[in-house]
Amino acid sequence: MLQKILSDLESTNATLVAVSKTKPVEKIMEIYNQGQRIFGENKALELQAKYEVMPKDIKWHFIGNLQTNKIKYIAPFVDLIHAIDRLKLLKEVNKHAKKNNRVINCLLQFHIAEETTKHGLTLEEAKALLLTEEFKSLENVNLIGVMGMATFTDDKVKVKTEFQTLQGIFKILKETTFKDKDDFKEISMGMSGDYLLAINEGSTMVRIGSLIFKPRN
Ligand SMILES: *Cc1c(COP(=O)(O)O)cnc(C)c1O
Fold first, then answer.
1. Distance between CA 97 and CA 99 in Å, rounded?
2. Is residue 118 pLDDT above 80, yes or no?
3. Other C-beta atoms within 10 Å of 94: how many?
4. Cα–ligand 1 centroid distance for 191 (angstroms)
5. Is the CB of 112 under 6 A from ligand 1?
């Protein structure tokens, strides 16, 4: 399945984040041994435990809701945090990044789905956040794009519209706040069930778990 997904991504500019949450190290190593180097987890302690025993050339992405009291476990090594949905979280990430002498790359998460259980900012909230002096003073976090999760539904038109919304938000931010920032370029969207729709709408990072780790037959 990994090869099929990689060939689907080949003609696009999207990278694959293999979502390995809940999967044991041996299973993740099978995917690693096929060449995959970017993995995504959504629990800080689980991520830390896997980081410690797995090869150090893995880029670990944190893709879930991050509690501020758990940042310390991942701050020394995390490559990208996908789901920043409030200034307080960004400030805390900044604090821990600084302690580790690092700059941590982050994405702003936007609420594009129908479900209210899904987290994320509105464009207005993000603009307000980006205008604060507090945000501007943060030196150890680096915003490189946006992230979103579509509604869990079979309605392809709806999912496509939600991905277009995220793409539109990215474009607005890229043309305004981040006009001169070349590394603000990521749109993290698309999972096992909707990654083909996502890459059609300009995704640069798909986060795929079940499809990759699905047991054979
Ligand atoms: C679990 C998860 C994924 C992967 O979902 P699959 O349907 O297993 O591909 C992607 N993004 C986030 C934020 C997740 O929590």
1. 5
2. no
3. 23
4. 6
5. no
pLDDT given at position 116: 78
**86: closest CA among 41, 47, 130, 118?**
130
Atom of ligand 1 lying closest to residue 213 CA: 8
Contact 170, 108 (CB under 8 A): no
- Provide the token pair at 78: 């995390």
Confidence of residue 119 (pLDDT cuts 50, 70, 90): confident
d(CA 179, CA 165): 19
Ligand 1 near 173 CB (within 6 A): no
Q: What's the pLDDT tens digit per position in 140-174?
A: 999 999 999 999 999 999 999 999 999 999 999 99
CB of 42 closer than 6 angstroms to any ligand 1 atom: yes
What's the 209 CA to ligand 1 centre distance in angstroms? Answer: 6
What pLDDT, in 10s, does the model give residues 69-84? 999 999 999 999 999 9
Q: Please state whether the predicted TM-score (pTM) of the whole model is above 0.90.
A: yes
Residue 166 burial (C-beta neighbours within 10 Å; 0-12, 13-18, 19+): buried
Contact between residue 199 and residue 11 where contact means Cβ atoms under 8 Å apart? no
